[in-house]
Write a structure and sequence with these properties.
Elements: E1 4-6, E2 26-28, H1 38-48, H2 73-86
Antiparallel strand pairs: 1-2
């Protein structure tokens, strides 16, 4: 299944959150059971689209996707500084950690 959602209106404006706004006007969701080459076809489809490489945190596949593409350079640098200062031993864990 391949739903496509238009990101116009309020979603197209400047974002005030830590991840910034995305340049793409459409959001693409790829669903399917992993088998019979579905994952490969999804990867090929995503690679063929003109995208910035960033994605919302809610679109990440757990354990298969790095959160780095979700964060803009403007927000990644401060996050890395906070992580280094407050968690130098890498004690705090999450599904999508700050990897600097």
């Amino acid at each position: 299944m391949v739903p496509v959602r238009y990101r116009g209106g309020a979603l197209a404006g400047p974002a005030h959150g830590p991840h910034g706004s995305l340049a793409e006007l459409y959001a693409l969701h790829l669903f399917g059971l992993p088998g019979d080459g579905v994952v490969d076809r999804q990867r090929d489809l995503a690679a063929a689209l003109p995208v910035s490489g960033r994605k919302p945190m809610t679109f990440l596949a757990w354990r298969r996707t790095s959160p780095r593409p979700t964060r803009s350079p403007r927000t990644l640098s401060p996050a890395c500084a906070i992580k280094a200062a407050r968690d130098p031993g890498n004690v705090f864990r999450s599904n999508f950690p700050v990897n600097c």
